[in-house]
Structure prediction request, 203 residues.
Amino acid sequence: MGVGGDAPRVTGTPRVRMVPGWVARPLSQFMWMEHGLLWTYVRRGKSPEVHGAQCALAWVGGVHMTAPATGDVGAPTQWRAMGELIVCGAVSRGEPYPDPGWWREAGIARLDNAERRLWWGQWSTYGWTTAIADGAGRALSWALGLIDDTPPVLPRHLEDGSRASAELRRDCAAMIREALTRPQADRTGPAGPRRPDHTSAST
Prediction:
């Protein structure tokens, strides 16, 4: 689906260069989705949902070193991404910090620590934080192949607290879908070969 008329288009070059092998999306889709979300956030109203989604994909793609909801600074292995997804769901629903048994049952007991309890207590009740967590969770679900929504998240709120209009949501959806039709960016120079679309980092 292209962007017609004078509607803004996503411009620039994606920053993601490779993704872990457990990511379900082709590299070209992943890199353009992260770039499209970043472009949408900067140019179309600074939505917290879009910000969370972009940060989650930037973490998985090695652009950011810190996970968006848990503050995890470890490499984004599959279990860490699933842990982040579970925490994003809890934060986005406004749930209180879970007891140790919740973390064990979720299989992410290693993410339960004093720093995270402090973060959760300070920030998880803010509307901006819950919106960021919602967007991050949706983006991680898309990256892991758990949902097929494209784009997985659209602006619902803007930086000033207002609701995103239906027109803005349609505009952003069209821009991101158009970006996803592009091939993988070639960073090797005019004479160099392109990498295969499914190039990935080791898990």
Remarks:
- The first strand starts at residue 19 and ends at 20.
- Strands lie at 19-20, 200-201.
- The chain is about 45% helix and 0% strand.
